[in-house]
């Protein structure tokens, strides 16, 4: 397992603007947006030429996509690509990113585990591969402290998740089942009312009292806390070693086959980006916030980004065993049939990059391409 240190905060960044509408789910939301205005600068004339003139990279304007935000903002990925230009494209929706990848308008993407599994299974293993990890953690259960003081108090309450079957929804349904409570996975009705709510509107729903809490990723969780909520549970505490995959790096199998040198260069960039983030937490936080501001016109307020940033771990390790666990939870909740995940990973190029950098290789948990 590759070494990775939590993103820590040494001092607050003084920003005063309010939270933008960038509170995306881990895999769901609105349509894609081309990032043409922020496409990397023209490569130097003597830059190394790779097999593709450009690479189209997708990501979400979300702190759990810190590797993409910082890697693009600081030019760390572009530097490794030489004469190959980056064409960034931001998404707020896992399905639309998968559609772009499968449709040939996207080459590489940062995305959550649930849409990765769904995309792989729907294409019968023919369209994508997970080629790296990117982030762990950053998911919390935040509640109205006047209505909910203990975990047992959740019974009979309305708790939001981003969307039916998304990563957080699956985790919450599994937690409910382990409590011995029942909820219909389709309607969300049961001992707890699971209210599927887009993260962009969850803060308003919370303030208006139409929900009593939410199991959500950052920065939505910290926004709810800034609005008076209380963290009742950090999902990190439920996992062995306090790690679970929240963001992967995926690639079109066609692009991987035709341009392995470009994919390897992108992975060198992501590995170096994660190393830079962990070595420069304050600068990285400011960089991510600057990228978010460029996306939505406003940076995150310090009282939101500071706690959110601390709860996310960037890591090259895809934490493959946790993806398998999340898949098993979705099956248990009857949201999906038992999937065949054999071949969903191809970590060959990542492990080549890690070895060259003197870092430990990572495991695909037996789910690698043959």
Automatic annotation (TrEMBL):
Annotated GO CC locations: periplasmic space; plasma membrane
Pfam families membership: NMT1_2
Keyword annotations from UniProtKB, A to Z: Cell inner membrane, Cell membrane, Membrane, Signal, Transport
Main location: membrane
Record keyword Membrane present: yes
Location(s), subcellular: Cell inner membrane; Periplasm
Keyword Cell cycle: no
Gene3D superfamilies: Periplasmic binding protein-like II
CDD domains from the UniProt entry: PBP2_NrtA_CpmA_like (cd13553)
GO MF, one example: ATPase-coupled transmembrane transporter activity
Taxonomic superkingdom: Bacteria
Family listed: Belongs to the bacterial solute-binding protein SsuA/TauA family.
This protein's name: Aliphatic sulfonate ABC transporter substrate-binding protein
Biological classification of the source: Bacteria, Bacillati, Actinomycetota, Actinomycetes, Kitasatosporales
